[in-house]
Write a structure and sequence with these properties.
The radius of gyration is 43 Å and the shape is rod-shaped. The chain has six helices and no strands. By secondary structure, the protein is mainly α. This is CBY1 interacting BAR domain containing 2. Keywords: Cell projection, Cilium biogenesis/degradation, Cytoplasm, Cytoskeleton.
């Protein structure tokens, strides 16, 4: 009986230990998934704000891209809710099953202890040899033995049912976990594929053309005359195309020719009389 009780107690103890760990880890997993959803929502808002500052093509691309990311977060929210309902809650409820089974084992141990007391009492009476007391004690032992046998049978059924239910529940909980994850990732891949196509179809040249048009509208043409007494930075050689002398047409052609060949040399020599 002692070995039988140890097997029962180990079964319940292991279930309590590992189901508790599963519950803790999967709850942390679910919380991190929820935090990832929150961070992705922030990214969606940032993308939308950024889109409002950009040219038409990039604005449309970023808005559509953000919409797809938002869809993924909707699926992630559903993932979180399903994990809580189908995975975390059943694991939490297992504490009640374990507590009830422990109570049954405790009841059995009390009956077993009572049987042992009756046997000890009978042994003492036998040593003293009073026949009437011994008969009474033997009757008590028989009653205790019957009770122990009945409780043992009940407990075996309880532990067998517990073990069977534990294995079925474990299978279902993790099957639900995998199904929830598969559904989320399948939906996410579908939406991410759409997001990828949105980014791939972005027309960069149209935005650059729009940007350059705006630049010309604000600052004038790139070959426009600079303001007087303005010395361009050596780090901006394209500004040299507008630097000309005003003495006569020949000198203007000479300076332009010099600028084409060596813009840095022209910049350093600006304002000096060209060497013939």
């Amino acid at each position: 009986m002692d070995s039988q009780v140890r097997v029962m107690e180990n079964t319940v103890t292991n279930a309590e230990k590992y189901f508790g760990q599963f519950c803790s880890l999967l709850a942390a997993y679910t919380r991190k998934t929820a935090r990832l959803r929150d961070k992705a929502d922030q990214l969606v808002r940032q993308l939308t704000d950024f889109a409002n500052t950009e040219n038409p093509e990039m604005r449309a691309t970023m808005r559509n891209f953000a919409e797809d990311l938002a869809k993924v977060q909707d699926y992630r929210q559903a993932e979180v809710e399903r994990l809580e309902t189908k995975v975390i809650c059943p694991l939490k409820l297992y504490g009640a099953h374990i507590k009830q089974t422990r109570s049954e084992i405790k009841k059995f141990k009390q009956v077993q202890k009572n049987e042992m007391k009756q046997l000890e009492k009978l042994e003492k009476l036998r040593q003293k040899s009073p026949s009437d007391r011994q008969m009474i004690a033997e009757t008590g032992v028989q009653r205790a033995s019957v009770d122990a046998s009945r409780i043992t049978h009940q407990l075996e059924e309880v532990i067998d049912t517990f073990q069977k239910q534990k294995l079925k529940d474990l299978q279902k909980i993790f099957s639900d976990f995998v199904t929830i994850e598969m559904v989320f990732h399948a939906k996410a891949v579908e939406v991410y594929s759409s997001a990828f196509q949105i980014l791939e179809s972005y027309d960069l040249e149209r935005d650059l053309e729009d940007f350059r048009t705006k630049m010309r509208g604000v600052y004038g043409r790139y070959d426009a005359q600079p303001f007087k007494d303005t010395t361009p930075s050596p780090a901006v050689p394209w500004a040299l195309t507008g630097q000309v002398s005003t003495e006569d047409e020949e000198e203007e052609e000479s300076v332009e020719h010099s600028a084409e060949e060596d813009p840095v040399e022209d910049l350093r020599g600006q304002g000096q009389t060209p060497q013939q």
